[in-house]
Design a protein that fits this description.
Layout lengths: L6 E9 L6 E9 L7 E5 L4 E3 L16 E5 L9 H5 L3 E2 L5 E5 L7 E11 L7 E9 L5 E10 L10 H5 L6 E5 L4 E4 H13 L5 E5 L4 H4 L2 H15 L6 E5 L8 H16 L3 E5 L1 H7 L6 E5 L3 E6 L10 E6 H9 L1 H6 L2 E2 H7 L6 H21 L8
Parallel strand pairs: 13-14, 14-15
Antiparallel strand pairs: 1-2, 2-8, 3-7, 3-9, 4-8, 5-8, 6-7, 9-10, 10-11, 12-18, 13-16, 15-19, 16-17, 17-18
Length: about 375
């Protein structure tokens, strides 16, 4: 197994088959020089490591709430029984420490830590840190931020389902690294965030996103933005890239602008920016910006896509996401309000029928949600 770097290679957090029990799984790689290294996992304040089932009634600092499983494709093996003797759980159950097995070759192990959340519902966000310290005092530190995407079965087509498995409910990113995802995946998670109703989802859109706006998820997304506005959450703010500047065909451009007009009538604050102007305003950080709540954002790349360079998104978390969000308003305000843009570039009269039909459709969806017939979201 070739390792690009030593340290934490991957992280998962998922529900166990036992109710309210969870597992944290770490994949850790290290070299011979780091043998007999101490590994420390600092759990989030909302988490408590648990000892084996037989010892639940006597939590002590010497009891074990974790197991180590060597990756079978590697040449060295360590028995789980021996590994268990190397673990310690702190008295407050927030710190798990262990010694990595001695090895004569580069080695990778999978570490499983069993734990419970203090509350039945996990928090929206957690932080985990993993430290490796060798016998010479050299240390590597890894800090992860995890975003909770809902209980099992409650999130349709979530990013986690795409990335790992339907059982995983947390999306993790290392604090100093950015996550690059296909544009379609980000489009799937945007409605999820909007449905939370405590999230502000503002974003850049362009004519290639019309399949999303015409989908059931797109209608649902708009309906929840209307509900948020009516509940006093403020108007959603949309950056629309001029379809003319992107070279769209006339019919494609008209369809997109008609969609934007319908969204404006629903209360969305739409400003139109020419692509070159938008790219310049974003200072080459990306070609579009999407803000998903307070702690997640994405910069788009390759909006003018081709078969070899599909549109992708660099996803940011925590402080970086909040910094990205802070530039959204100033950038959006440099655009032309949609009403003024349409006065200068009027749509053919026949598109008025589409606009009216779209407004009725979204309003009908709002009424369904408010009346409790929200069957699409009851899964």
């Amino acid at each position: 197994m070739k390792v690009d770097r030593f340290g934490v290679q991957g992280i998962r957090l998922y529900e166990s088959v036992v109710p309210h029990e969870w597992k944290l799984e770490l994949l850790v790689s290290y070299a011979k020089a780091w043998s007999d290294t101490q590994l420390t996992v600092q759990l989030d304040d909302s988490m408590r490591a648990t000892p084996p089932a037989a010892e639940l009634d006597q939590v002590q600092s010497t009891k074990l709430g974790a197991s180590l499983i060597p990756v079978t494709s590697l040449s060295t093996e360590v028995s789980k029984e021996r590994a268990r003797k190397l673990y310690h759980v702190s008295p407050n159950q927030s710190l798990v420490t262990m010694r990595l097995p001695r090895t004569d070759v580069d080695h990778t192990v999978r570490i499983e830590v069993e734990f419970r959340f203090i509350k039945l519902r996990p928090p929206d966000k957690i932080f985990l840190s993993v430290d490796l310290r060798n016998t010479l005092g050299r240390m590597l530190k890894f800090v992860f931020e995890g975003l909770y995407l809902g209980i099992r079965g409650s999130v349709r087509h979530s990013l986690v389902d795409f990335m790992i498995s339907p059982a995983d409910r947390f999306l993790f990113s290392e604090r100093e690294d950015a996550l690059i995802l296909p544009h379609d995946w980000v489009s799937d998670v945007a409605p999820i965030m909007q449905r939370r109703q405590t999230s502000i989802v503002w974003g850049t859109t362009w004519h290639d996103e019309m399949p999303f706006w015409n989908s059931a998820e797109g209608v649902d997304f708009l309906a929840y933005q209307v509900i948020d506005l009516e509940l006093g959450g403020g108007a959603s703010r949309r950056i629309a890239i001029s379809p003319y500047g992107l070279g769209a065909e006339v019919s494609t451009a008209n369809n997109f602008l008609a969609e934007m007009e319908a969204q404006a009538l629903l209360g969305v604050d739409v400003h139109v920016l020419e692509p070159d102007h938008l790219f310049e305003e974003l200072s080459n950080l990306g070609q579009g910006l999407l803000c998903l709540g307070e702690n997640m954002a994405a910069f788009y790349s390759n909006i003018i896509q081709d078969a070899n360079s599909p549109t992708s998104a660099k996803v940011l978390f925590g402080d970086e996401a909040r910094e990205a969000k802070s530039i959204y308003d100033p950038v959006q305000n440099t655009g032309v309000p949609l009403k003024d843009f349409l006065n200068a570039n009027p749509l053919p009269p026949q598109y008025g029928q589409y606009v009216r039909a779209r407004v009725r459709l979204v309003r009908a969806r709002v009424a369904e949600i408010r009346s409790g017939t929200d069957t699409l979201r009851s899964l």
